Amino acid sequence: MPDVRLASPQGRWTLFTTVLGSSMAMLDSTVVNVALPRIGRDLDTDLAALQWTVNAYMVTLAGLILLGGSLGDRYGRRRIFLFGVVWFAAASLLCGLAVNAVMLIAARALQGVGGALLTPGSLALIQASFHPDDRSRAVGLWSGFGGIGAAVGPFLGGWLVTGPGWRWVFLLNVPLALLCVPVALRHVPESADERAHGRFDVLGAALGALALALLTYALIEARAGSLAVALTAAAGLASALAFVQVERHRPDPMLPPDIFASRQFTAVNLVTLCVYAAFGGFFFLTALQLQVVVGYSPLAAGTALLPTTALMLLFSSRSGALADRTGPRLPLTVGPLLCAAAMLLMLRVGAGADYPTDILPALLVMGAGMVTLVAPLTATVLASVDTARAGLASGINNAAARAAGLVAVAALPLLAGMGPEAYRSATAFDAAFDRAMPICAWTLLLGSALAFTLVRRPPPHCRRPECRTHGNVTAPPLESDRPA
C-alpha cells in the first residue's frame, strides 16, 4: 500500500515534482498560440506552417497518450515520467533553436512524444504514491496548481514573446526539467502495476498517429487540390481503417472496441469531439485575430484571454457538484449553447474593437460555457464504464478531445477561405475569422443536440472525478486508474 503522507517532506516534494512536470506540457498547449504571429514573421513562413506548429505536437500527443500510460504501468511510473520530462525538454530545446519552419515542426512532433509520456504519468504518480487518506487532497492540489498553470499560460506566453522572444516559450522548459529530474530521483518513490501484462499495442499507436498526421496534412494542403493531397487523404483513411482492424483483433488493444458498447460512453465522446473541435479552432484563431486585426501585442493578447481560463479555475469544482445533483444532460446541453453564443459575440471583435464592450463579454460567456460543461463531461465519461476501466475511458476521451482540436486547426482555415498569407493581412484575416466563428457555433450546436438526445443520468454509485479543478482549454481532465 502506498504510504507517502502529504504533510511529510517527501509528500511535498512529490507533489511539487508532478505539478512541475505536468505544467511543462500544459503550458506548452496554451502559450504557443499567442506566439504564432511572431513565429511566422521571424521564420518567414505561411499559415500552413503555423497550423503545423500547433498540430505536429497534437498529432503525436493524441496518438501516443494511451500508450504512454501503459508504459508507466509496466516499466515504472517514475521512470517513464522522467523519461518524458527529459524527452520533452530536449525537444523544447530543438524548438527554441529552430532555424526554419521545418525544424520547428519536427521538434514540435518530438515534443508531443514527450508529452504523451509525462502527462498521464504525473497523475499516476500521485495516485500510486500517497496514502489513501491523503490521496484525494493530493489530487485536488495537483489539479488546482495545474489549473493555475493553464490559466497563466497565455499571459506567460505573451510576456515571453514580447520580451525575451518567442524562442523562450520553448527554452523555458529546459531549466524546469533540470529542476524536476533530480528532485524526482531523490524524493518520488517508484511504482508499477503488477497486474500489467501482455504486449504493448505499438502498431495500433503508430497507425493512429499516422492516420491523424496524413489526414491533417490533407486538410491543411487541400487548397492546392493536387493529386498528392488526394493520395495523402486516401492513405490517411486507409491508415484509420487499418487501425480499427488492428484494435479489433489484438488480444491487448490500446483502444478496446468493446468499450464503445456503452451507449453513454459513445455519446459523450461524440459530444467531446464537437465541443473540443470548436474550442481548438476558437483559441487558435482568436489569438491571431487579437494580434493581426485588433493590433494587440502578444502580451496584451495573452492577458486578454485570461478571463476564460480564470473562470474555469474558479468554478469548475462547483460546476461538477451542481451536475451531480442535476444530472449531466442539462449542463452538457446548456454549456455548448453558451459557448456558441460566445462565438457569435466574437463577430464584434474586429479592427478598433474595445476590450470591455466587445472582447471581454464574449470571453466571459465562453468561460461560463466551458465551466458549465467540462466537469460534467469528465464525470459522465467515468460513470459510463466499469470502475476498473475508468482510467482507460478518461484517456480515450482526452485523446478524442485533442484529435478534434487538431482536425479543427487543420480544417477551419480551409472552410473559412483563409489563404496562405491571410495572417499577414488584417482585412483578409478579419473576413475569414467572421466566416469561421459561425462554423464553430454550428459545431457546438450539434454537440448540444447530441447531449440532449443521447446523454442520460448515470447510476448513483459510480466512479466520480478526482480532478475537480481544471483550467486547460485543449482537453478535459485526465484521470488514471486508482491503485488497488
TrEMBL record:
Signal peptide: none annotated. It is a multi-pass membrane protein. Residues 465-484 are annotated as: Disordered. CDD domains: MFS_MMR_MDR_like (cd17321). It is found in: Cell membrane. It comes from the Bacteria. Keywords: Antibiotic resistance, Cell membrane, Membrane, Transmembrane, Transmembrane helix, Transport. Residues 14-459 form the Major facilitator superfamily (MFS) profile domain. The chain crosses the membrane at residues 12-36, 48-68, 80-99, 138-162, 168-188, 200-220, 226-246, 267-290, 296-315, 327-347, 359-383, 395-416, 436-455. It holds the Pfam family MFS_1. This is MFS transporter. It comes from Streptomyces cinerochromogenes.
